[in-house]
C-alpha cells in the first residue's frame, strides 16, 4: 500500500489518523451528494438541461461544510480546516498567508 504511506508522509499523520481522514472524506462526500439530492428535490428540479450544472454548484458549495461537520466526531477538524483553507487558496478564493 504505497499510496497509504505516501499520504501519511505528505500529510504528516499516523496510520490511525490517515484512516480517520479517509473515512471522513468518504462519509463527507456521500453526505454531500445526499443533501444535494434533497435540495434538488425540494427545488423541484427534474429532467431539465440545467439539472447537472445546478447539482454541481450545490455540491461544490456544500462539500466543505459537510466534510467539516463529519470531521468533528472523527477528531480531524483541525486537519480539514487547514485542508479547506489550503484548497481555497489554490482556487483563488482565499489569500494565502
What does this structure look like?
79% of the residues lie in helices and 0% in strands. By secondary structure, the protein is an all-alpha fold. α2 runs antiparallel to α3 (51-74) and α3 (51-74) runs antiparallel to α4. The model has no long low-confidence stretch (mean pLDDT 92).
Tally of extended strands? 0
Which stretches are poorly predicted, pLDDT < 50 over at least 5 residues?
Answer: none
- Give the topology string: H per helix, E per strand: HHHH
From the helix content, strand content and strand pairing, which structural class follows? mainly alpha
Strand content: under 5%
**Mean pLDDT, nearest integer?**
92
How far is the first residue's CA from the last residue's CA? 34 Å
Net shape:
elongated
Task: Please compute the radius of gyration using only Cα atoms.
Answer: 16 Å
Biggest sheet features: none
User: Helical stretch count?
Assistant: 4
What share of the residues lie within helices?
over 70%
Amino acid at each position: 500500500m504505497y499510496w497509504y504511506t505516501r499520504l501519511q508522509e505528505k500529510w504528516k499523520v499516523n496510520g490511525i489518523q490517515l484512516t480517520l481522514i479517509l473515512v471522513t472524506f468518504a462519509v463527507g462526500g456521500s453526505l454531500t451528494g445526499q443533501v444535494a439530492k434533497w435540495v434538488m428535490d425540494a427545488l423541484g428540479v427534474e429532467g431539465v438541461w440545467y439539472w447537472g450544472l445546478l447539482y454541481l454548484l450545490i455540491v461544490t458549495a456544500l462539500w466543505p461544510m459537510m466534510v467539516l461537520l463529519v470531521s468533528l466526531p472523527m477528531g480531524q477538524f483541525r486537519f480539514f480546516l487547514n485542508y479547506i483553507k489550503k484548497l481555497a487558496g489554490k482556487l483563488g478564493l482565499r489569500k494565502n498567508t
